[in-house]
Amino acid sequence: MGIVDEPTVIREGEELDLARIESFLREKVEGANGPLEIKQFPSGFSNLTYMIRMGDKEMVLRRPPFGKKAKTAHDMKREFCVLSALYPVFPYCPRPLAFTDDEAIMGCQFYVMERIPGIILRKDLPPGMNLSAADARQLCINMIDLHHRLHFLDYKAIGLSDFGKPDGYVRRQVEGWSRRYRDARTPDVPDFETVMAWLDKNCPPDSGKPGIIHNDYKFDNLVLNPKNPLEIIGILDWEMATLGDPLMDFGSSLAYWINKDDPAEAQMLRLMPTHVEGMMTRKELVELYAEKSGLKIDNIDFYYCFGLFRLAVIAQQIYYRFYHGQTKDKRFAQLGFAVALLDVGAKRVIEGGGI
After folding, report:
1. CB atoms within 10 A of CB 184
2. Which residues of the chain fall short of a pLDDT of 70?
3. How confident is the model at residue 236, as a pLDDT?
4. Per CATH, the architecture of 18-114 is what?
5. Assessment of whether the complete model's pTM goes beyond 0.90
6. pLDDT digits (tens, 9 = 90+) for 128-154
7. Which segments of the chain belong to CATH 3.30.200.20?
């Protein structure tokens, strides 16, 4: 097995109509010749991602999941448009190739982009990949540097002034994600009312430096150069990108970061190799981001707690679909348990546990 991220067989119930896809690609994508082959990238819990090969051309198709979806989620056109605006000035984005809202093809909007082949870090380092402690630290530095560069792009100069509403972003996020959790709650998960009340009470004003935020920036959405795994060559999954407060984006990234010495219940949530010797701690990441951005971060507990809560809402929205039989993906069965663990983590922050 190589260290480059590869697709596998398509999950049951998530098959595509090959004839219609092939017809669309031959018409809309230059160089889409040769026999069609489609596989699926098995990771990820939201939009479905497929690898398409036609001759020597490799592409990635993104479509919404099957079943009930959050009202404002999975907007394929929006995701395609932000990639179209960003790619010329921020080439870490995949190059967008084609979009359609013709639901006759597969019952939904979808888009196609170029594939960026490379290493994607999942729960553990892939077989054959080793990082020294110095390498692990440098990868963290590179990750934070790129996150900062995204936040400080001139979004007005590239035509993204209307991409979001940065004014009042922090308060709006607390209220919106609280509403989403209540709407998606099932009887077998915590009510999160204590956490939501704390976030509402402790909501800070916007940081005053709005920017483009990814909203799901983490190791398994970064593509690493197979020849130099410390070099980040791509950023994937732009479905939640918008204009907003960079500190909210940074806090959401911290929520995924499990320190090597975190308690056992936190270790159960680890999805990326943030425990490897040499990886920075959350506190070190905060110090580095503050240094690079020049932003004063004196209430990081709020942003981190919000990140944990937001992650719980995302997990619960997906678990809702599984609970009500709208998806057959067995991975989703454990998400209710993850929601409960995130409730524990958020309450630990509220009670003074910090980051």
Report:
1. 21
2. 1-2, 44-45, 67-74
3. 95
4. 2-Layer Sandwich (3.30)
5. yes
6. 899 999 999 999 999 999 999 999 999
7. 18-114
